[in-house]
Write a structure and sequence with these properties.
This protein is α/β, with parallel strands linked by helices. The chain is built from seven helices and 20 strands.
Length: 340
């Protein structure tokens, strides 16, 4: 009788865990030839993303979170129209040839395409999916518990099961509902985040001034869904509510100026609905008010605010400030850990 086989998902999980354990053994070590790739090349969509990737690579190498003795490179795609993975591959190979000449043919190279803006996972849009934190070493993270990644939470705040909080600070009077994603946020005042909320804050550089804006959605909202005309925006949904109804709640008019970019590709990604604020905490608080206004069907006017779309937020993003904020949290957590 043939031996019973494990389900495919179990075998895949075990194989992944073996690879992760092997990678963990190589982190911070000078690898021997053949133990790892000779070159790791990462593609970026633009110069700001390139800057973010290089900075994060530098920090990870400094903390010995990556194998040593490997050449790490970030190659930015050419400006202009998108060239896709094929074009990006050719550009990366050209750069490698310029750097290493004919020798690059003898190297074992890992090429990672990471030049997208991650519309399915917007909290990774600004600093890149390739550097997204995953709770691989936190076995208690599951749909039955919350998952806290590099964040500082007051012991009195509450985070419901299934929710993820990353790179954030939450005060004592903050309550996070089930199945939420909170990223890069700073909430010290009393706040209740509805279940299934997505909240992500970005630092912006506008007219040489540091500003902040926080995108807030429902986790099930489809940011990629688009319509061609203003008359069809009723087909879009924000937090499960007709987008047209949301605009009424926020006292916003339906005009072409409501959307950035291509005026025949109207979506939540290009909708100018997110307030620009002078502080990170005000930014989060204001966006939560607009989210709760939709949830509670109560008016909250956005007319007095400068509004941006996610598309524009990524254009104005201040990579250095966002990385600094994350590093401050990391250092504070490290100091507390050393005192224990």
């Amino acid at each position: 009788m043939a031996a019973a086989r494990d389900p495919p998902e179990v075998s895949l999980r075990e194989a992944t865990q073996r690879k992760l354990r092997r990678f963990s053994e190589l982190r911070g070590k000078l690898v021997a030839p053949g133990e790892f790739w000779d070159i790791v090349a990462i593609t970026a969509a633009d110069e700001k993303q390139e800057l973010a990737y290089n900075h994060q690579l530098s920090e990870k190498l400094k903390r010995k979170e990556l194998p040593l003795g490997v050449q790490y490179h970030v190659f930015v795609d050419p400006a202009g129209a998108k060239i896709g993975n094929g074009g990006s591959t050719l550009c990366a190979l050209q750069r490698l040839e310029k750097l290493y000449g004919d020798k690059w043919n003898s190297f074992i190279i890992l090429l990672i395409h990471s030049g997208g803006y991650s519309q399915r996972l917007p909290n990774a849009s600004a600093l890149g999916k390739i550097f997204t934190a995953l709770p691989l070493d936190i076995p208690e993270c599951s749909c039955k518990t919350s998952c806290i990644i590099q964040s500082i939470l007051d012991s009195r705040c509450s985070v419901a099961p299934g929710s993820v909080v990353e790179y954030s600070r939450l005060g004592p009077d903050v309550s996070v509902g089930e199945n939420c994603i909170i990223s890069g946020s700073y909430i010290l005042t009393k706040a209740a985040l509805p279940a299934h909320s997505f909240v992500c804050s970005l630092s912006l550089k506008m007219n040489r001034c540091l500003k902040y804006s926080t995108m807030a959605f429902g986790v099930q909202d489809n940011l990629k869904k688009s319509v061609k005309t203003l008359s069809d925006i009723k087909l879009l949904q924000f937090f499960g509510v007709c987008f047209l109804s949301c605009l009424d709640v926020w006292n916003l008019k339906v005009t072409e100026e409501l959307f950035s970019g291509n005026k025949t590709c109207l979506s939540l990604w290009t909708a100018r609905i997110f307030p620009v604020c002078s502080s990170l905490s005000d930014s989060v608080t204001t966006s939560l008010k607009m989210l709760n206004a939709v949830k509670n069907k109560s008016a909250f006017s956005l007319n007095s605010y400068k509004l941006l779309s996610i598309e524009e937020m990524l254009i104005y993003k201040d990579v250095e400030d966002m990385i600094t904020y994350r590093e401050q949290i990391f250092l504070e957590i490290s100091l507390k850990s050393n005192l224990i």
